[in-house]
Amino acid sequence: MARTKTPSRDAYVCSECGWTTAKWVGRCGECQQWGSVVEQGTRTNSLHRTTTAVAPSQHAVPISQVRGEAAHRTVTGVGELDRVLGGGIVPGAVVLLAGEPGVGKSTLLLEVAAAWARRGRRTLYVTGEESAAQVRMRAERTADLSDELYLAAETDLGTVLGHVEQVSPTLLVVDSVQTMQADTADGTAGGVTQVREVTSTLVRAAKQRHMAVVIVGHVTKDGSIAGPRSLEHLVDVVLSFEGDRHSGFRMVRATKNRFGPADEVGCFEMRENGIVEVADPSGLFISTGGAGQPVPGTCITVTVEGRRPLLAEIQSLVANSPLQVPRRTNQGVDGSRVAMLTAVLERRARQPLGNKDVYVSTVGGARVFDPAADLAIALAIASGTRDIGLPPALMALGEIGLAGELRRVPGVARRVSEAVRLGFRTILVPASSEGDLDRMPGTVRVLAVESVGDALGLFGLMGGNGRA
């Protein structure tokens, strides 16, 4: 039977990013690369074809008879990473770690490989971006040398599999998947076809040998993982390595985990001698703590990253604007959220913000997108407007609606417990959350308010003659 094209809605695909279109174009509409859009392979008309049955090499067995010991977790030796993975890495699991350039992916994985090898387990670290001597130099600086840690600088996938046969590691680290190239696939290294073929081959090798595999992935300019979307479906765990290169704080966030929670985070700090774990990161995001002199325009809140409560300090600066359209500058917070809160403060709490520049920022490079931080942002802006400092041991928690009401937020008890542990004695919460705080120490004062106007009135920050 002659090969015929099957009509397809998206007949052309970009070989660089996987973008599809119904007709050929010279420039990709997603990654803006010229000449990367090619026609997808023709498909045979298989409506009347059937696949020949093949005898399986292993018989199917009842699920109750499958041995579960082979899937027991193994700790990596890095506690914060084990926390994100759910207690350790499962043999045969494939983990994808993605992050921006220079954030410290290679440094973290070299630390993981060395910690794994120090426990007497053989590790193979394959680098396609550096030479073996360069990796050795970094390992000396971070004290990550071990006799069970094997190093290879390769970009050919077949050679990498040969190293796996020779070394027989229990952990394989590939840095990175975009530099590897397979002879069985077309295209250049880092392209859609190559990335898919390399990842599929590594997944098969991991399952057959019960070998844990960690793959480094690049990200695009908008922060998403580079390559085809199927890359994330092929692997078992997807981790995102986040952090500002100008700040030492780093965070590993699980976005997919077949063997554990997908809402956990691990905290690290980048130093001159490598990357270290931060078991209690709340102190990195506050500058005044629970004591000290009141500073106008400053308020503390507690956000939840995954299941971990983290303190965050919100700072604001309000000044008269010489411009016709005042500035609204934000760093570390959601700009649209701050704009909404500014409008609520002006309309519901009579704060004179219409002709003032408003700057809102976080301390320590923290990124706060939790709606529970609304009340802290509003208090910081009002405090900066009136130039009145809030009590130094105050923690504010609550989501603000357009009518100025305070809404209940999840995990109030956990957030308040973290604030109390760090020395905060005055807790401001929505009135609807008061029932969640049954057992509080006698030294802690819980203030329950119904609206942002009531909260500002407690500290003399209300504008005009009271609530609007």
Automatic annotation (TrEMBL):
The keyword Protease does not apply. One of its GO terms (biological process) is recombinational repair. A motif (RadA KNRFG motif) lies at residues 256-260. The keyword Zinc applies. InterPro entries: AAA+_ATPase (IPR003593), DNA_repair_RadA (IPR004504), P-loop_NTPase (IPR027417), RecA_ATP-bd (IPR020588), Ribosomal_Su5_D2-typ_SF (IPR020568), Ribsml_uS5_D2-typ_fold_subgr (IPR014721), Rubredoxin_2 (IPR041166). Gene3D superfamilies: 3.30.230.10, P-loop containing nucleotide triphosphate hydrolases. Residues 70-219 form the RecA family profile domain. GO terms for cellular component: cytosol. ATP binds at G99, E100, P101, G102, V103, G104, K105, S106. The middle region has homology to RecA with ATPase motifs including the RadA KNRFG motif, while the C-terminus is homologous to Lon protease. Belongs to the RecA family. RadA subfamily. DNA-dependent ATPase involved in processing of recombination intermediates, plays a role in repairing DNA breaks. Stimulates the branch migration of RecA-mediated strand transfer reactions, allowing the 3' invading strand to extend heteroduplex DNA faster. Binds ssDNA in the presence of ADP but not other nucleotides, has ATPase activity that is stimulated by ssDNA and various branched DNA structures, but inhibited by SSB. Does not have RecA's homology-searching function. HAMAP family: RadA_bact. This is DNA repair protein RadA. It comes from Raineyella antarctica.
